[in-house]
Amino acid sequence: MKATAVFAVLLAAGIVALAPCGLAEIGFRRAERLFASREFEKGLSTCDAALRWKPAHQGARDLRTKLTRALSSPIYRCGNSSSEGLALALLDQTNRFGEGFLESFDLAEAERVFRLTLELAASASAYVDVSSREERARRGLERIAAMLEDR
Question: What is the pLDDT, as a whole number, of residue 24?
Fold first, then answer.
């Protein structure tokens, strides 16, 4: 009986009805701070918790979309910092261009792009591990050499 009376007083004061909204707002604010500090996984889980409290929280829904996009971007997946991720994503992209030219039998352009990848990798190797990207470009150049020998 006492608990029911306390609940009725809290409900009348609007405290109980606002509790889920308040917790959702607190979670949303924390997720925003995590997003700003580039802790995307923690931010996403915090944002999901806020949305469990209040599924209609528009700010949390928008932030969840941003966090999901950030986590799926190649820059984030490649490295821990934005400069590392950007360098690795650039090397991946140039390798893909080279492979595309190779598949279309434009050997001169493919060779140019793979050599560009190796030059970029040499300049980026001072601050990020690019060995797998260099190896991919070298394999592309070896395929070009093999194709030219077969002619």
Answer: 84
Query: Of the candidates 143, 142, 135, 93, which has an alpha carbon nearest to the alpha carbon of residue 118?
Result: 135
Distances (CA, A) of 3 to 13, 20, 125: 15, 19, 66
Please tell me the total number of residues recorded for the chain in this structure: 151
HSE (side-chain half, CA atoms, 13 Å) at 147: 15
The string of DSSP letters for the chain reads: -HHHHHHHHHHHHTHHHHHHHHHHHHHHHHHHHHHHTT-HHHHHHHHHHHHHH-TT-HHHHHHHHHHHHHHHSHHHHH-SSHHHHHHHHHHHHHHHHHHHHHHTT-HHHHHHHHHHHHHHHHHHTTTS--HHHHHHHHHHHHHHHHHHHH-
Closest to 112 in 3D by CA, of 140, 71, 133: 140
* CA 86 to the chain's CA centroid: 11
Task: Point out the residues of the chain with pLDDT beneath 70.
Answer: 1-21, 73-83, 127
